[in-house]
């Protein structure tokens, strides 16, 4: 009878360790996915800033612009970046307040004006 109890405890120990390792693996995958998204989004914002500077420079030289008018922002689309230098914090801002958007970026409420 005592051996049966020890076997059950070992089995439970193994199940709990496997569950803990599964949780750690899930956390690692989500963290890596979010970091990759943030890196791509920040590069996209930098490209948007560079394009805006070029269009402003062209406007100052009175060169006709060939850019299209502002289109509506789609849910999940990157719209900017928020930086807090004091905290060494930088994060991409994406349109939307759903779970998938908030899981990888700072969300912007769709019914509010763009910054």
**Total number of strands:** 3
Helical segment count: 2
Measured as a percent range, the helix fraction is 40-55%
What would the average pLDDT be, to the nearest integer? 83
Range of strand content = 5-15%
Biggest sheet character = 3 strands, mixed
- Tell me the number of structural domains: 1
Shape from CA axes?
Answer: elongated
Q: What is the quaternary state of this protein?
A: single chain
The helix/strand class is: alpha+beta
Q: Give the topology string: H per helix, E per strand.
A: HEEHE
Cα-atom radius of gyration: 24 Å
Low-confidence stretches: none
Strand order of the largest sheet: 1-2-3
Distance between the termini: 69 Å
Account of the 3D structure:
This protein is α+β, with helices and mostly antiparallel strands and about 120 residues long. The chain has one domain (about 1-110). The protein has two helices and three strands, in the order H-E-E-H-E. It has helices spanning about 1-60, 100, and strands at about 80-85, 90-95, 105-110. A three-stranded mixed β-sheet has the order 1-2-3. Strand 2 (about 90-95), helix 2 and strand 3 form a beta-alpha-beta unit. The protein is elongated, with a radius of gyration of 24 Å. The protein starts with a helix and ends in a 7-residue tail after the last strand. The model has no long low-confidence stretch (mean pLDDT about 85).
SSE blueprint:
Layout: H1 2-60, E1 78-84, E2 89-95, H2 99-102, E3 106-108
Parallel strand pairs: 2-3
Antiparallel strand pairs: 1-2
Give a short overview.
The chain is α+β, with helices and mostly antiparallel strands. It is 55% helix and 15% strand.
